[in-house]
Design brief:
Blueprint lengths: L1 H29 L6 H55 L44
Protein backbone atom coordinates (compact mmCIF):
# COMPACT_ATOMS: atom_id res chain seq x y z
CA UNK A 1 0.00 0.00 0.00
CA UNK A 2 2.86 2.37 0.73
CA UNK A 3 4.41 1.54 -2.61
CA UNK A 4 1.22 2.53 -4.48
CA UNK A 5 1.03 5.80 -2.48
CA UNK A 6 4.68 6.57 -3.32
CA UNK A 7 4.09 5.88 -7.04
CA UNK A 8 0.99 8.14 -7.10
CA UNK A 9 2.90 10.84 -5.21
CA UNK A 10 5.81 10.68 -7.71
CA UNK A 11 3.37 10.77 -10.67
CA UNK A 12 1.64 13.83 -9.18
CA UNK A 13 5.00 15.58 -8.70
CA UNK A 14 6.06 14.79 -12.29
CA UNK A 15 2.67 16.04 -13.59
CA UNK A 16 2.99 19.27 -11.58
CA UNK A 17 6.54 19.75 -12.95
CA UNK A 18 5.37 19.29 -16.56
CA UNK A 19 2.45 21.67 -15.93
CA UNK A 20 4.84 24.32 -14.51
CA UNK A 21 7.20 23.89 -17.50
CA UNK A 22 4.39 24.37 -20.04
CA UNK A 23 3.00 27.32 -18.09
CA UNK A 24 6.43 29.00 -17.97
CA UNK A 25 6.83 28.68 -21.76
CA UNK A 26 3.39 30.13 -22.37
CA UNK A 27 4.08 33.01 -20.01
CA UNK A 28 7.35 33.78 -21.79
CA UNK A 29 5.56 33.88 -25.16
CA UNK A 30 2.80 36.01 -23.63
CA UNK A 31 5.27 38.60 -22.34
CA UNK A 32 7.46 38.60 -25.48
CA UNK A 33 8.18 42.22 -26.44
CA UNK A 34 7.92 41.62 -30.19
CA UNK A 35 4.93 39.31 -30.62
CA UNK A 36 3.02 39.04 -27.37
CA UNK A 37 0.93 41.26 -25.17
CA UNK A 38 4.09 42.82 -23.73
CA UNK A 39 4.90 44.26 -27.14
CA UNK A 40 1.39 45.62 -27.49
CA UNK A 41 1.62 47.23 -24.07
CA UNK A 42 4.99 48.76 -24.97
CA UNK A 43 3.62 50.17 -28.24
CA UNK A 44 0.52 51.56 -26.54
CA UNK A 45 2.66 53.14 -23.83
CA UNK A 46 4.79 54.89 -26.46
CA UNK A 47 1.65 56.11 -28.24
CA UNK A 48 0.24 57.47 -24.98
CA UNK A 49 3.46 59.41 -24.41
CA UNK A 50 3.29 60.83 -27.93
CA UNK A 51 -0.35 61.82 -27.46
CA UNK A 52 0.47 63.53 -24.17
CA UNK A 53 3.19 65.59 -25.85
CA UNK A 54 0.85 66.47 -28.71
CA UNK A 55 -1.88 67.46 -26.28
CA UNK A 56 0.44 69.76 -24.35
CA UNK A 57 1.58 71.40 -27.60
CA UNK A 58 -2.04 71.84 -28.72
CA UNK A 59 -3.00 73.39 -25.38
CA UNK A 60 -0.12 75.86 -25.63
CA UNK A 61 -1.07 76.77 -29.18
CA UNK A 62 -4.71 77.23 -28.18
CA UNK A 63 -3.71 79.46 -25.26
CA UNK A 64 -1.54 81.60 -27.55
CA UNK A 65 -4.32 81.84 -30.13
CA UNK A 66 -6.86 82.79 -27.46
CA UNK A 67 -4.55 85.50 -26.16
CA UNK A 68 -3.96 86.99 -29.62
CA UNK A 69 -7.70 86.80 -30.40
CA UNK A 70 -8.46 88.66 -27.19
CA UNK A 71 -5.97 91.38 -28.08
CA UNK A 72 -7.34 91.68 -31.62
CA UNK A 73 -10.89 91.86 -30.29
CA UNK A 74 -9.92 94.68 -27.93
CA UNK A 75 -8.23 96.54 -30.78
CA UNK A 76 -11.30 96.08 -32.97
CA UNK A 77 -13.59 97.38 -30.22
CA UNK A 78 -11.37 100.44 -29.75
CA UNK A 79 -11.38 101.12 -33.48
CA UNK A 80 -15.15 100.68 -33.55
CA UNK A 81 -15.54 103.26 -30.80
CA UNK A 82 -13.27 105.68 -32.68
CA UNK A 83 -15.23 105.20 -35.88
CA UNK A 84 -18.50 105.77 -34.04
CA UNK A 85 -17.11 109.00 -32.60
CA UNK A 86 -15.96 110.12 -36.04
CA UNK A 87 -19.35 109.31 -37.52
CA UNK A 88 -21.05 111.23 -34.74
CA UNK A 89 -18.70 114.16 -35.38
CA UNK A 90 -19.67 114.12 -39.06
CA UNK A 91 -23.30 114.65 -38.11
CA UNK A 92 -22.30 117.90 -36.38
CA UNK A 93 -20.84 119.40 -39.59
CA UNK A 94 -23.35 121.70 -41.30
CA UNK A 95 -24.40 120.66 -44.77
CA UNK A 96 -24.23 124.26 -46.16
CA UNK A 97 -20.97 126.21 -45.92
CA UNK A 98 -20.80 129.17 -43.53
CA UNK A 99 -20.32 132.65 -45.07
CA UNK A 100 -16.66 133.65 -45.46
CA UNK A 101 -16.91 137.25 -44.33
CA UNK A 102 -19.01 138.75 -41.62
CA UNK A 103 -18.91 142.28 -42.99
CA UNK A 104 -22.37 143.71 -43.47
CA UNK A 105 -21.43 145.56 -46.71
CA UNK A 106 -20.29 142.48 -48.55
CA UNK A 107 -23.01 140.30 -49.80
CA UNK A 108 -22.22 136.61 -50.15
CA UNK A 109 -21.83 135.48 -53.74
CA UNK A 110 -24.75 133.62 -55.12
CA UNK A 111 -23.79 130.00 -55.26
CA UNK A 112 -25.54 127.14 -56.81
CA UNK A 113 -26.56 124.47 -54.24
CA UNK A 114 -24.50 121.33 -54.49
CA UNK A 115 -26.54 118.35 -55.50
CA UNK A 116 -25.01 114.95 -55.62
CA UNK A 117 -26.10 112.20 -57.89
CA UNK A 118 -26.13 108.86 -56.04
CA UNK A 119 -25.01 107.09 -59.22
CA UNK A 120 -21.79 109.10 -59.63
CA UNK A 121 -18.72 108.08 -57.67
CA UNK A 122 -17.60 110.30 -54.82
CA UNK A 123 -13.94 110.08 -55.84
CA UNK A 124 -12.61 109.85 -59.38
CA UNK A 125 -9.11 109.03 -60.59
CA UNK A 126 -7.78 111.36 -63.28
CA UNK A 127 -4.92 110.54 -65.61
CA UNK A 128 -1.76 112.65 -65.60
CA UNK A 129 -1.56 114.78 -68.77
CA UNK A 130 2.15 114.13 -69.43
CA UNK A 131 2.35 110.41 -68.87
CA UNK A 132 -1.23 109.29 -69.14
CA UNK A 133 -0.90 107.42 -65.84
CA UNK A 134 -3.45 107.73 -63.08
CA UNK A 135 -2.26 110.22 -60.48
Amino acid sequence: MELIADILLAAGAIGAGVYCFVLARRLNRFNDLEKGVGGAVAVLSAQVDDLNRTLVAAQQTAATSAKSLTELTKRAEDMSRRLELQMAALHDIPSTPAPQSTRPEASPPASKPVTTNPNTPMFARRSHPATGDAA
